[in-house]
Fold this protein.
Amino acid sequence: MAYAERVSDSMSAPSASVEPSTVAELGESAVLARILPRLAPGDSAILGAGDDAAVVRAVDGRFVVTTDFMVHGPDFRLAWSTPFELGWKAAATNLTDVAAMGARPTALVVAIAAPPTTPVAVLEGIADGLREGLAHLAPGAGVVGGDLSASSVLTIAVTAFGDLEGRAPILRSGAQVGDVVAHAGVRGDAARGLRLLFAEATDASGEPDRELAAALRARHPELIAAQLAPSPPVSAGVAAALAGASAMLELTDELARVAGRLAEASGVGLDLDSARLGDDIRLALAGAEDHGLLATFPPHVTLPAPFDAIGLVVDDAGRLFVDGAPVAAEGWDPYAGWDGRAG
Amino acid sequence: MAYAERVSDSMSAPSASVEPSTVAELGESAVLARILPRLAPGDSAILGAGDDAAVVRAVDGRFVVTTDFMVHGPDFRLAWSTPFELGWKAAATNLTDVAAMGARPTALVVAIAAPPTTPVAVLEGIADGLREGLAHLAPGAGVVGGDLSASSVLTIAVTAFGDLEGRAPILRSGAQVGDVVAHAGVRGDAARGLRLLFAEATDASGEPDRELAAALRARHPELIAAQLAPSPPVSAGVAAALAGASAMLELTDELARVAGRLAEASGVGLDLDSARLGDDIRLALAGAEDHGLLATFPPHVTLPAPFDAIGLVVDDAGRLFVDGAPVAAEGWDPYAGWDGRAG
């Protein structure tokens, strides 16, 4: 089922549970018994959840691994995101990191720390979002294990694995002068969505508001989805590797900042073409959380879909340009970017 | 360097930093630049931290994986544990889960979410504890990647990997009637340590107290270390597999509860011998967090060190006995076991 249908489903019929119950009332074992059947271990699981550890296939004798936190407050607001969206986004962001190495995602492990008062339906929704996000973005990949803990702050930690299928990983350091700079995914939509949420889905005191968010979602479904439940181009990672990408990075941070990192690691400059960056160039460069892929390809390579050429690799080590004019990388810091609120 | 020496070092000279500084003051990149040099990627890393994901060797085409949270409040108190101990314990508990499959630990990824006001020295201490815990308990294993996030609650998520070296994983379900029940590790010491901390290292209002904890540590170094920085028998996992263990589980939870799980999964009964359980049988059975290994071995196998025989596998499916008398499994639930305090 596609993301939009599932969100619509989950909003009209929030939970299958008859009795409302919290994780503390139900206890760890009963909560796990409600969550695990909603998750599939996937094609790479040799041994899934249920013992001290899982066992996962690593066909070529290596595995790609990345880990990422989503924390209530700095990373999401419960008044804005549905549990389904939290699970979907946790899967999507980690799958993109695996894809950015040129690997095919194989499996996740998921650790959740939740306040004792958390309704079990919230964890069920997160599990549903994980499952559907995996099915949509990385068919065949599954959840092979996890952990359930108590905390005063809802926190989700996903660790994702991938298979390089015998290829070398695509590093940030391989770009060569003369290569084409290419981008896959949306540009600026996640930032537009977040700006709308802060502008139009907060109450008079600035707190996130659930009803205002629902109304906003109806008006701007694509921009809100880009922020709350992104659908990054996960399969484009393997396609880029097969096409011969020389370097690749994932775009959690701003395009300008990530391009700067690639330029610095590769000892080259990147010159982006403003005509390829859309109507709002500033937002395309400085909007974070799009979770697209930035890659470089040798000249004359036919770019695999959905990559677009957006510039050229030039000879000025570590520097970023737009239409030949130098640009500063703008960055977001997790400690500077959070106002301390939850919501 | 052994655990005791390092704790003593870290208590007399808390940090090499001249200026006190928080993670928010320093910013993510500078914090990572202070932490990463304290960690080694280990022998199994093909590509360590620094790109979108790491690449790890999985020589036999499979890897073992386990993930676990440590959350300020339910899982540790900052007034009791040093940062070094937090890092050591995060490594130790996850390494034991890998060992309990009969695997050799190869690598960890570590995600840390910390309040913006956290001194960088705390994260440096956690990194030092991770490094020394790995060096002491699983030489050759290293930290291949991680994530640093903001949260109002200090939270550490470790995901650990292991190599089965061509062997089948040792499951909880393989015990056979007539097998010997064996145990490796301390029995009840972690619970004794925790009981002492609550009894003698809290102030008049019940809050954890740093100075009382330091005094207690001097009086009962082994029991406090068993709770705050355990040294589980990690290498005994591979030794058990090589000796032909038929089933194995890790002892985060109480011996009685874990024995019950093994009995149920294997469709057998376990009859423990009280004479082998030490002076305080109740505590040996009901004390959690010892992080030892419970295994069963076919009769006539010479038990590998440091396993001790503590009972026999009998014919009463799913039941636990001591000296032939039925015993109830006592358990701890993360949501029931936490009073909501941090400290």
Notes: Chain B has eleven helices and 13 strands.
